[in-house]
């Protein structure tokens, strides 16, 4: 018997795999373009909102707002009970199989469950607000903020779930439009209106609550357009509780731990420090977390794609997409990082002179977030390939480490200590995730092209930094240097050359710009 491989079959298999990858890149490109455009608009809106809050509220009241918002973000994840990740994972699978009854059942049952749990969380926060403010933080002024966010909590959790359903259906336009445009813009307009009539923090709370409720209604209407048979119960209704609930329960504790970790620095600084320190730190953290903007945009598309590819057994395509997303996310993020390092003091001045003290904090947080971006979407690789329990363990380990570091560093260094604790914890967490992805999938996010990106950044950034240091540029000169950095960075990337996967992305970008010029 002839056991030699058929070269024709091998070539065909390679061609099919290559075509599958190209199709995935095309989807990533379409979704990425939409997500980035909406995301950039959303970042501008949020930035304007934070400038307005910083200048009108001041550091102390902004600190109270930051603590209340941290409580909202943590409890909203409790209200979601992990279903926002569960619906992305399973709706992507069920929709790919054409099982509309399961898609319908997943969406509607998840909405009912989240409405109940988030309402209970809101009631609990309202009831405990006085005790938390006075006994927990020794800041009685925090109680009204907690009650205001408690009222908004059910609508906020529901909105997060609805946008996750759109992600699961792989309609990134609806997800990005609501998350990055409609909701933040409505919050901005409502809050600006309340400031115009003389309200302060109470106006922020009213504006956030009303705009979130409005966004919920609009998103549900949009979801019915995406999935017209959503309320057609005669066509079948099935909720795979035995699959979805265990997955979501594991994700709940992971996500809750992750959210606590994200806001633990602010909460512990609120317990151990004064409100103005929390406000200064919170503003620095807001800016520093913009570092992962492109990662969040690509992750919104990457997560359902990975779930689908893994479910279909297309391991090679999954790894290629993982590495391509990791490289391009880093490539786009490095200029943002350089901007915050180079112009950080001037950026903080926009929010008011009180916030100047946050410059060292901004530097440390920016570096920590850059490391988070640099290792790629390793957390999503674990969750979307069926390892939410492992990610839960990672979150617990990093959470305990963060508490210990905060208790040690905040009394010594204040806000800078909180930033240092966060950066160390984020680095440790991502190194753990990276090693786990390598052990499970025998892959990592790095390629030779990653070194080229880093080389281009070091050469361009180092040159502009040295130039600014020699000539002691004022703000105008530094802004001009930023333009020089971008030109040099892009030129070096082209000079160093692109990988095969990158050439596909670059060709698509060139065709897009050619059509725009035409």
UniProtKB/TrEMBL annotation:
Instruction: Identify the domain of life.
Output: Bacteria
Protein species of origin: Entotheonella factor
- Protein name (record): Uncharacterized protein
Q: Keywords, A to Z?
A: Cell membrane, Membrane, Transmembrane, Transmembrane helix
Q: Which residues cross the membrane?
A: 35-54, 74-94, 106-128, 148-169, 181-198, 204-223, 330-351, 357-378, 390-409, 415-434, 446-467, 479-498
Q: Give GO cellular component annotations, separated by semicolons.
A: plasma membrane
Membrane topology, record value: Multi-pass membrane protein
Q: Where in the cell is it found?
A: Cell membrane
The answer to whether the entry has keyword Cell membrane is yes
Please verify whether the record's keywords include Nucleus. Answer: no
Which Pfam family, any one, appears in the UniProt record? Polysacc_synt
InterPro entries linked: Poly_Biosynth_Transport, Polysacc_synth
């Amino acid at each position: 018997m002839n056991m030699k491989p058929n070269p024709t079959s091998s070539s065909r298999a390679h061609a099919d795999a290559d075509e599958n990858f190209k199709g995935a890149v095309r989807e990533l490109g379409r979704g990425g373009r939409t997500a980035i455009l909406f995301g950039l608009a959303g970042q501008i809106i949020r930035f304007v909102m934070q400038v307005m809050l910083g200048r009108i509220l001041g550091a102390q009241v902004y600190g109270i707002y930051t603590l209340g918002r941290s409580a909202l973000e943590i409890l909203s994840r409790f209200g979601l009970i992990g279903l926002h990740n569960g619906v992305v994972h399973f709706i992507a699978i069920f929709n790919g199989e054409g099982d509309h009854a399961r898609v319908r059942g997943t969406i509607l049952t998840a909405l009912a469950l989240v409405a109940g749990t988030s309402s209970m969380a809101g009631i609990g926060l309202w009831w405990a607000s006085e005790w938390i403010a006075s006994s927990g933080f020794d800041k009685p002024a925090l109680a009204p903020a907690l009650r205001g966010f408690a009222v908004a909590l059910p609508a906020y959790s529901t909105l997060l779930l609805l946008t996750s359903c759109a992600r699961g259906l792989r309609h990134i336009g609806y997800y990005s439009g609501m998350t990055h445009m409609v909701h933040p813009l409505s919050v901005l307009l409502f809050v600006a209106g309340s400031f115009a009539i003389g309200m302060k923090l109470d106006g922020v709370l009213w504006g956030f609550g009303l705009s979130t409720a409005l966004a919920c209604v609009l998103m549900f209407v949009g979801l019915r357009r995406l999935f017209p048979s959503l309320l057609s119960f005669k066509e079948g209704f099935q909720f795979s509780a035995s699959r979805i609930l265990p997955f979501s329960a594991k994700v709940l504790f992971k996500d809750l731990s992750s959210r606590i970790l994200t806001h633990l620095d602010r909460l512990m600084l609120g317990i151990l420090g004064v409100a103005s320190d929390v406000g200064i730190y919170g503003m620095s953290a807001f800016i520093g977390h913009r570092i992962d903007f492109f990662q969040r945009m690509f992750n919104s598309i990457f997560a359902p794609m990975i779930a689908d590819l893994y479910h279909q057994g297309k391991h090679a395509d999954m790894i290629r997409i993982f590495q391509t997303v990791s490289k391009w996310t880093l490539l786009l993020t490095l200029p943002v990082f350089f901007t915050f390092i180079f112009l950080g003091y001037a950026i903080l001045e926009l929010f008011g002179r009180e916030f100047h003290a946050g410059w060292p904090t901004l530097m440390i947080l920016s570096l920590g977030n850059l490391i988070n971006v640099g290792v790629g979407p390793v957390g999503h690789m674990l969750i979307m390939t069926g390892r939410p329990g492992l990610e839960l363990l990672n979150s617990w380990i990093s959470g305990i480490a963060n508490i210990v570091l905060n208790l040690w560093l905040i009394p010594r260094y204040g806000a800078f200590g909180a930033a240092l604790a966060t950066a160390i914890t984020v680095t440790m967490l991502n190194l753990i995730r990276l090693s786990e992805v390598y052990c499970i999938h025998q892959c990592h996010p790095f390629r030779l092209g990653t070194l080229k990106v880093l080389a281009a950044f070091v050469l361009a950034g180092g040159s502009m930094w040295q130039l600014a240091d020699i000539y002691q540029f004022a703000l105008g000169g530094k802004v001009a240097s930023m333009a020089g950095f971008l030109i040099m960075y892009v030129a070096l990337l082209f000079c160093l050359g692109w990988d095969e996967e990158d050439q596909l992305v670059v060709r698509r970008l060139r065709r897009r710009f050619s059509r725009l010029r035409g």
